[in-house]
Design a protein that fits this description.
11 helices; globular; alpha/beta; 6-stranded parallel beta sheet; 24% strand
Length: 339
C-alpha cells in the first residue's frame, strides 16, 4: 500500500480527496496537517500535524496530497519532492508556468511522480461530451462554450475571495474550464479575455469571459456570479448539428451532503438534466454518463504502481497555468494575446 498524507483540511480535502483516498484500497491514509480543531475527532487514528512543512519533514508518507491555499502549492510541492515523496497538487497547480516547469523538472530529477488534480475530467457531463465528440455525430466542431456560473452576488469572507496571489474566480473555477478545453482541443493559438471584479465590494476577480482562438474553431469559457437561472453548462456546435447541456455534475453536492462515492447510482444525473442534441432531422435527449472522481485516483495509483500515464500530463498542466497568465495579460493590455 502507498502511505498517503493530506495537507489541509478545508472543503477541497474533505470533499474531493479524503472520500476517495479512503475508498482506494492501494492507498493508506496515515497523516493530515491542519489547524482545524475537529480534525483529531474526525480522524483520531491518524498522525496529526499543525503545518504542512512539519508533515513533510516528519511523516513517513510516500504520497503527499496538497490541498492548502493556492499560494502555498509551489513551496510545499517543492519541499515534498526534495524530501523524496510523490506529490498530488490540487488545482490551480501553481501560480505561474515557471513555477510549474521547475517542479516537473525537480520531480524528474528526484525520480518521483508529480500529479495535478483535475477531477472534473471525470464529471459525467464531460465524459459524455468526450463520447459525443468521438462519435463524430455532430461533424466537425466549430464552436464550443463552457460555463461555470453561480448566483453569489455578495462577496464572502474567505481567502479565495480576498485580494492576494492566486485568489479570485479565475484561479478557482478557471482551471476546471481551461483544463477541460485543453483535454478536448489542445492549446489555442491565441486568447482574448475579460477578467473583472464586478460585485460591489469584491476584492478579487469574480467574473471571467475567455475566448480561445483556434485555427478551425472558437471556444468560450465563462463564469459569472450573477446567474440565478439554471445555468448553461456546455454548448457544442458542429457542421452536422449541435448539443446543449444545462446543470452541473451531481457528485459535489452528494459529497457535501456526506454521501460516500460508492454504489450503482453514484454520479448518475437526473434525466431532466440530460443534454439536447439537435440535427437537421430533429432533436432528442442525449443521456449523461455517470460521473466518477474515483477514476482519477485509480489512474494515479496505476501511474505509481504500473507506470501508466498520469491522469493529467505535464504538458497539459503547464498549458493550463499559461492560459491563466495570458488571460490576466489580455485583461491588462485590452487585446488578444498569442499563446
Amino acid at each position: 500500500m502507498i502511505k498517503t498524507a493530506v495537507i489541509g483540511y478545508g472543503l477541497s480535502a474533505k470533499t474531493f480527496h479524503l472520500p476517495f483516498i479512503v475508498q482506494q484500497s492501494e492507498l493508506e491514509l496515515v497523516a493530515i496537517s491542519s489547524s482545524q480543531p475537529e480534525l483529531k475527532s474526525d480522524y483520531p487514528q491518524l498522525q496529526h500535524y499543525q503545518h504542512g512543512d512539519e508533515l513533510i519533514r516528519v511523516s513517513d508518507a510516500e504520497l503527499v496530497v496538497i490541498s492548502s491555499p493556492n499560494d502555498s502549492h509551489y513551496p510545499l510541492a517543492k519541499q515534498a519532492l526534495l524530501a523524496g515523496k510523490h506529490v498530488l497538487v490540487e488545482k490551480p497547480f501553481v501560480l505561474t508556468e515557471a513555477q510549474g516547469r521547475e517542479l516537473f523538472e525537480l520531480a524528474d530529477k528526484q525520480q518521483r511522480q508529480l500529479f495535478v488534480y483535475h477531477n472534473r475530467r471525470f464529471d459525467g457531463d464531460f465524459l459524455t461530451l468526450q463520447q459525443l465528440l468521438k462519435s463524430e455525430e455532430l461533424g466537425v466542431i466549430r464552436y464550443f462554450e463552457s460555463h461555470f456560473d453561480r448566483f453569489r452576488p455578495v462577496p464572502r469572507q474567505r481567502w479565495r475571495e480576498q485580494q492576494g496571489a492566486g485568489t479570485g474566480i479565475l484561479y478557482d473555477l478557471g482551471p476546471h474550464l481551461i483544463d477541460q478545453s485543453i483535454a478536448l482541443f489542445g492549446a489555442p493559438e491565441a486568447l482574448t479575455a475579460r477578467c473583472r471584479a464586478l460585485r460591489q465590494g469584491s476584492e478579487a476577480v469574480d467574473y471571467f469571459h475567455l475566448m480561445l482562438h483556434y485555427a478551425d474553431k472558437e471556444v468560450v469559457l465563462h463564469s459569472s456570479p450573477f446567474c440565478a437561472l439554471p445555468t448553461t453548462r456546455f454548448i457544442l456546435q458542429g457542421d452536422k448539428g449541435s448539443c446543449h447541456k444545462t446543470g452541473l455534475d451531481p457528485q459535489e453536492d452528494a459529497l457535501r451532503a456526506g454521501q460516500k462515492p460508492q454504489g450503482a447510482n453514484w454520479g448518475l444525473e437526473s434525466e431532466a438534466l440530460f443534454g439536447v442534441l439537435a440535427k437537421a432531422d430533429g432533436q432528442r435527449t442525449y443521456p449523461t454518463l455517470a460521473g466518477n472522481y474515483q477514476l482519477f485516483y485509480q489512474q494515479l495509483v496505476a501511474a505509481l504502481q504500473l507506470g501508466k500515464a498520469s491522469p493529467v500530463s505535464a504538458t497539459q498542466a503547464l498549458q493550463g497555468i499559461r492560459l491563466i497568465e495570458l488571460a490576466q495579460q489580455s485583461q491588462q493590455l485590452g487585446r488578444t494575446v498569442e499563446f
